[in-house]
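Throughout our pipeline, every protein is held as a single compact record rather than as scattered files. The record that follows is passed on verbatim for readers who wish to inspect the format.
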Amino acid sequence: MPNAIPRGAVFLGKREVNFGIDRDTILVPRSIGPLHQLIVVARMNPVEVYNIRVIFESGASEDYGLREKLFTTSDRLIVDLPGHSRMVREVIFRYRTLNNAVRRAVVELWGI
């Protein structure tokens, strides 16, 4: 997937996505440092993302209610975090694998 992940982005984690609506959490290590943007990409099969909730180190959270389809060829979902760079504690996804695929999709989370 060329150009989906910009230079300097840091890998934060990945999860396999179930076929029905699924909820998963990626814990972000404290060693990552402050972020100003999150990037979500789909691998293996396309994914439909319903919601992303970002929990910051302070305990505050931000919900990104959306309905985006991510295809494995070149799509990426960019989430701009509010304010200046912030420490992210965890990211919670609500999503599902599309197209009744034989294999589950994998979602990768990256940060800048």
Notes: Strands lie at 10-17, 22-27, 37-43, 47-56, 61-70, 77-80, 88-97, 105-111. The chain has a mean pLDDT of 91. The CA atoms of residues 72 and 107 lie 10 Å apart.
